[in-house]
Amino acid sequence: MIRIGNSVPYLDIILLAMLAGFVIFKLRSVLGRRTGHERRPTDPFAESPETNDNGNIVRLPDRSAESVDGSDDDVPGSSMAAGIMQIKLADDGFDERQFLQGAKSAFAMIVEAFAKGDVDGLRPLLSRELYGGFASAIEACEKAGEIQETTIVTIRSADVVEASLENSVAKVTVEFVTEQVKVTRSSDGEVIDGDPDRIDILTDIWTFARDIGNRDPNWELVATRVPED
User: What is the full DSSP assignment across 163-225?
Assistant: First the structure.
């Protein structure tokens, strides 16, 4: 075998080259070659055009077949149901049944705190504007020397009657039908309004709101009203 200095023998070089060629051939047969029609690798950080701000895929129904006479607006509860759906799409943790349970608890807490004149207890439950109105009413009662007594006997029903999503603010309006005993007494305990032995059936319509873009999961009472006659 002829050697040139300390170089690798010629036969060994030829064998190594053949072996390298065989390995390359086998790799190409296993991995294949690009043809120009391969799909691009999926970018896990790319936003799908059908994805909302929360990253949940939302496939909107085709509205082209709907009538254009606005008849959907005449269906009772259709706007409320649409509002609930909008809130659910924006906040997948929203559940109207759990919300109503919380609303009942909030109703009882607010009514009790107002009757006791507990402004500190009301503060985290009310919006800033509504809190100002409640605090003023409590202050007026204290100046007049009047004492409010309110007992919720039972909550007969609590139903969502309105729902909407404006920008990131969700609003849900609940109609409460309750049995209450309401009495106003003077500073010496004399009854000046109401009857401690009478149960009144009352209907209140309260609107709760929450910024779903905020991490705080709590809802605030933002408006109250009674049904129109």
Answer: EEEETTEEEEEEEEEEEEEEEEE-TTS-EEEE-TT-PEEEEEEEEEEEETTSS----EEEEEE
